[in-house]
Give the backbone structure.
Amino acid sequence: MRPHEFWGSTPHETMVFCLACGRAEMGRFRRALWEAWHTAAFQRTKRMPNLGVMLRKLGGPEERKQTVGEVLQQVEWITAASRAQAEAAERN
């Protein structure tokens, strides 16, 4: 969030933005952890698994459905971002 976006936002919009940023950062952290774990696991294996089989498994289980609260939180974040862009365009 840029300074002009911050000062043009309500405390609630700022909180929603911060929560969304934290959630995105946690996702990046989880991916890095997953990659590190699997890299270490593959280093210890004597025989690498078949790549084709592994790629087919990547389809994996269905993603967890979002709760109503999570969807509303994302809508509020998008609204806050759109409002900030509109205000910035008005200033120019």
Residues 76 and 82 are 10 Å apart (CA to CA). Helices lie at 3-7, 11-44, 51-57, 68-91.
